Each structure stands twice: as structure tokens, then as C-alpha cells.
Amino acid sequence: CAKLLADLGADVIRIEPPGGHPMRKMGPYVRDEAHPEKSLHWFHFNTSKRGITLDLKNSDGKELFRRLANTADVIVETYRPGYLDRLGLGYEKLKENNPRLIMTSITPFGQTGPYRYFEGSDLIAQAMGGLMYPAGFPDAPPYRIGARQSDHCASIQAAVGTMVALYARELTGEGQRVDVSCQEAGLQALE
């Protein structure tokens, strides 16, 4: 989602935890050298972005995040539902100082509903969202569709939802929460 927004011209700041984001450990790598600075996966999804390291678990990191949120148009996050709230960095708290803020949340099953706290992955979202149903042969188990399709579907839906929220904000002056479920977003690929 943030890559799409950055490629469309948004000024995106990628926030990484100390030690780097786990995506840095995903291959393939430049010259097959497994190194966090050589992940092609990382390079692809972080083009057009600036980056900082921030520890949201300590008070200095939280304060810097709040300052960034006070001037941001959009925050895109993928934490488990309620995680940012427990840190005092949830949408309701942040919008007190920035009522025009849009927070886009991408999770396996969304922020509400009976599955919101379930663990999830691209594979689980593909299976539960129906993407695996048409893959394969009738007398064999279903096949996973490659390239993390439910994650990509969710990212596209989140980018579109974010842009619609930005347009609505221009009309109303108010921000809003955009909630995207990877499981539900995968349904678009079945159409």
C-alpha cells in the first residue's frame, strides 16, 4: 500500500524497528548474498520511500511517532488489532491532535469481527478468502497462488481506500480509519 502511494508521489517515511524489518531477511538477494542490505524483496517494496528506525516500546520512540503523526496525512500500519491502542498510539488518540489524520490498517482479518485476533498469513487468507478454490485440479488438494496474492490484493484495496479517504477529507475536513482485511480483499481476485 505504502509503495503504491509513494510511487504515486506521496512522501512516505518507512518506520523500522531496531534491528530492521523482517522483510530485509527475505530473498532473493543481490548476488545471492544473504544480507539485510541486499534483499531484492526489500528494495522492491521500499522504492520511493525514506526510512527511520524507531522503537515504539520506549517513551522517546512513542513521542517521535506522535510528532510524526501530528503532521502526517496518512499512517499505514499492519499491527495486530489493539496493539497501537495499548501503546497510546491508536487512531482515536492520534486524531485528538490531528483530526485530519487518516489511518489505514491492514490485518489478516480486519479490526472488527470474530476473527480479528486470529493469527493469519497470506496462505491462510488465500484459503479462507477463496483464492485457493479455483487453483489446481478437482481430484487434488488446492494449490497456493504464488507471490503473496492476498497480501497484494489487500495492499491495492488499502491504497484505493486511502485515496478515497483523502478525497473525502478534502470535502469534509475530517480524517478517518480505513480498515482492510487480507482475507476479504482476496475476494476481488475471484471476480
Question: How does this structure look, described?
Answer:
The chain is of the alpha/beta class. It contains eight helices and five strands. It has helices spanning 2-7, 40-45, 59-71, 83-86, 91-94, 122-129, 149-172, 182-185; strands at 12-16, 49-53, 74-77, 102-107, 177-181. The strands form two sheets. The protein has a three-stranded parallel sheet with strand order 3-4-5.
Low-confidence stretches: none
Q: Could you tell me the mean pLDDT?
A: 94
**Residue share in helix:** 25-40%
Structural class comes to alpha/beta
Give the end-to-end Cα distance, rounded to a whole number of Å.
21 Å
Query: How many beta strands in the DSSP annotation?
Result: 5
Radius of gyration: 18 Å
Largest sheet: 3 strands, parallel
Read across the widest sheet, the strand sequence of neighbours is: 3-4-5
Order of helices and strands: HEHEHEHHEHHEH
Gist of the model:
The protein has helices at residues 2-7, 40-45, 59-71, 83-86, 91-94, 122-129, 149-172, 182-185; strands spanning 12-16, 49-53, 74-77, 102-107, 177-181. The protein is α/β, with parallel strands linked by helices and 191 residues long.
